[in-house]
From TrEMBL:
<dbReference type="InterPro" id="IPR008310">
    <property type="entry name" value="UPF0735_ACT_dom-cont"/>
</dbReference>
<dbReference type="InterPro" id="IPR002912">
    <property type="entry name" value="ACT_dom"/>
</dbReference>
<protein>
    <recommendedName>
        <fullName>UPF0735 ACT domain-containing protein CSX02_13345</fullName>
    </recommendedName>
</protein>
<dbReference type="Pfam" id="PF01842">
    <property type="entry name" value="ACT"/>
</dbReference>
<dbReference type="InterPro" id="IPR045865">
    <property type="entry name" value="ACT-like_dom_sf"/>
</dbReference>
<comment type="similarity">
    <text>Belongs to the UPF0735 family.</text>
</comment>
<feature type="domain" description="ACT">
    <location>
        <begin position="78"/>
        <end position="153"/>
    </location>
</feature>
Length: 154
């Protein structure tokens, strides 16, 4: 049976393979991605030359392979927000995060100045969670939240 291209885009299967079963070009693409993400290579040209593949091979597979980290649960996102210093405000934010199926890794809250507190959060965003941008939007809708900004997503 022939697979329709549109069928493949709506539902994709993911596979976990041992390194020896992965074609060398894909391993090199993953290494080029790592060089770019870490800043050890400043351009695709530099990264592909470093690992010994063509740029066309890189562009063909760059979004299709990434290193599987057995101990990683999701993606990390960092947010900053300003809230009114009112009883229950932090609790409302934390409840919204929990209801969005996002785990909190760290919390840093400033001492309130003029009735406004700053909050910095590091979050573990899993496949079952809402996106960091959607979470920021949900938190911004709470009364007493002045703004929410996603600083980084990994």
């Amino acid at each position: 049976m022939k697979t329709n291209v549109s069928d493949r885009t709506t539902k994709e299967n993911l596979y976990v393979l041992r390194e020896h079963a992965v074609p060398e070009v894909l391993i090199k693409v993953a290494e080029a991605n790592r060089l770019l993400e870490s800043g050890k290579a400043e351009s695709v040209q530099e990264a592909t030359e470093a690992v010994g593949i063509s740029r066309s091979s890189y562009y063909k597979y760059k979004d299709d392979i990434s290193l599987f980290h057995e101990n990683s649960r999701g993606r990390t996102a960092n947010m900053v927000m300003q809230l009114d210093d009112e009883r229950g405000m932090l609790s409302s934010v934390l409840r919204t995060i929990s209801d969005s199926n996002v785990n909190i890794l760290t919390i840093q809250q400033s001492v309130p100045v003029h009735g406004i507190a700053s909050l910095i959060l590091s979050l573990d965003v899993t496949q079952d969670s809402v996106s960091p941008d959607e979470l920021a939007s949900r938190i911004e809708q709470l009364d007493g939240v002045h703004y929410v900004k996603v600083l980084a997503k990994e």
